[in-house]
Write a structure and sequence with these properties.
This protein is mainly β and 423 residues long. The protein is built from five helices and 26 strands. The protein is globular and about 55 Å long.
Length: 423
């Protein structure tokens, strides 16, 4: 009865958000389906792989010249039987929608054996920066067993070669407990020619209740903890009771906003609140080494409440923050220079068949330098031990230009016009 009442409240909140955005009625918006899988085989020769062992959680889209693109997925190791954990869609299947083949990145040797701590143990999060680099968080875990230290790896996407590898210090995480649910990278503080040598990664540790900051230029890391990064005790339901800080997003660094303060935004999975903290404070490592709760705590600000749970979130270069609404099949947006209320939060997409359990949400720039939003959407049953029919879609990658989302026009993406990628 309680769950039914809660779902009713959720639908009411969604209706308010939709009506406040000027919509007359709730209409399904079709996002572009890039790929979808009913059978994620990972190149196995065995017919019919066990999908419950292969659960992709993050994606990134790399655009090259003339609209050519490459799709990356992370598939954390839930067993030693996972042949590889960082993948790309095979170039020959780039325009194949259903069950395209996946290939190990950068090569299969990087992933074997699973306990090889000098390779890739279990990739969980990625980020592609403006310098054509792929940042990867490797949890070092296989089925929640900490076999290796977590690492941040940076690959040059032009040459597909590793350019930097750094272990996360042992006091920055809790072995077999820390799960990294989001990462965003910022290069704005690095100036040429060091810009493409540096950058800071901000990594959410959901079950460790903290934020890890990694500075690639110096190799230093520091950890930030605050009560707002812990689970909300009043919202223990639907299996998210113990998930803390689940997302991390940054104010844009474009020239148009350089004179304004930038913020790091986050929320816990089971909370209605969106939180913010000044980015310059986050970047000051010395403050957090001897952090005084009373001194730094006042800088953590409640932006507002959604009245509803949100999974993944991401911010575009115009300051629009997007989040996927749990169990409602909807995507909402809010501009950071407005109030965080129902009158300012807009439902920009509604499609329960496409927007299911979104574990990866990214903003990538296409070849025309336009922002595109991409989501990895999975059937939630797969994450709670459930099963689906062999022909049912388990995972799908869907996208839309952010301009189309905000203007409520049909979704288009640069990949629609691309020729097959030749690598």
């Amino acid at each position: 009865m309680l769950k039914a009442q809660f779902v009713g409240v959720q639908l009411t909140v969604l209706a308010v958000v939709v009506c406040s955005s000027g919509a007359q009625q709730l209409q399904v918006k079709q996002l572009h389906t890039l790929h979808k899988w009913s059978d994620l085989s990972l190149g196995s020769d065995q017919p019919g792989t066990k999908n419950n062992l292969f659960l992709p959680v993050d994606i990134d889209i790399e655009y090259g010249d003339e609209g050519r693109h490459r799709t990356f997925l992370t598939i954390p190791r839930l067993s030693a039987g996972t042949p590889f954990t960082l993948a790309t869609v095979a170039s020959s299947d780039n325009r194949v929608v259903e069950n395209p083949r996946l290939e190990a990145y950068p090569s299969l040797e990087w992933h074997l054996p699973s306990s090889n701590c000098s390779g890739i143990t279990s990739a969980i999060r990625t980020y592609i920066d403006e310098c054509w680099r792929l940042w990867v968080v490797d949890s070092g875990q296989v089925n929640s067993v900490q076999l290796c230290a977590p690492h941040v790896l940076i690959f040059d996407l032009v040459r597909d070669e590793l350019v930097q590898r750094s272990a996360i210090p042992s006091h920055m995480y809790t072995p077999s407990v820390s799960i990294f649910t989001a990462m965003v990278v910022d290069l704005s503080e690095s100036e040429a020619p060091a810009k493409c040598l540096g950058g800071k990664a901000y990594i959410a540790d959901a079950w460790g209740y903290g934020l890890i900051v990694f500075d690639a230029l110096t190799g230093r890391s520091w950890r930030i903890e605050h009560e707002s990064m812990q689970p909300s005790l009043g919202m223990r339901r639907f299996g998210s009771a113990y998930a803390g800080i689940f997302t991390v997003s940054l104010s844009p660094s474009s020239e148009s906003v350089l004179l304004k303060s930038r913020f790091l935004y986050f929320h816990t999975l089971n909370s209605f609140y969106e939180m913010a903290i000044p980015l310059d404070l986050v970047n000051n490592a010395s403050i957090w080494q001897n952090a005084n709760v009373d001194t730094v705590g006042k800088h953590f600000r409640i932006v507002g409440t959604r009245g509803i749970q949100c999974e993944s979130e991401v911010m575009d270069n115009g300051g629009n923050l997007y989040c996927s609404l749990i169990s409602l099949g909807a995507l909402a947006s809010w501009h950071e220079h407005t109030n965080y209320t129902a009158n300012d939060i807009r439902a920009v997409a509604y499609n329960p068949q496409q927007l299911k359990f979104v574990t990866g949400l990214k903003i990538n720039q296409n070849s025309k330098r336009e922002n595109e939003l991409w989501a990895l959407s999975s059937d939630p049953k797969l994450f709670v031990g459930g099963s689906l029919k062999d022909d049912e879609v388990k995972f799908q990658i869907i996208g839309c230009r952010t301009a189309d989302l905000l203007a409520n026009t049909p979704c288009t993406v640069g990949a629609m016009d691309a020729t097959p990628t030749v690598k």
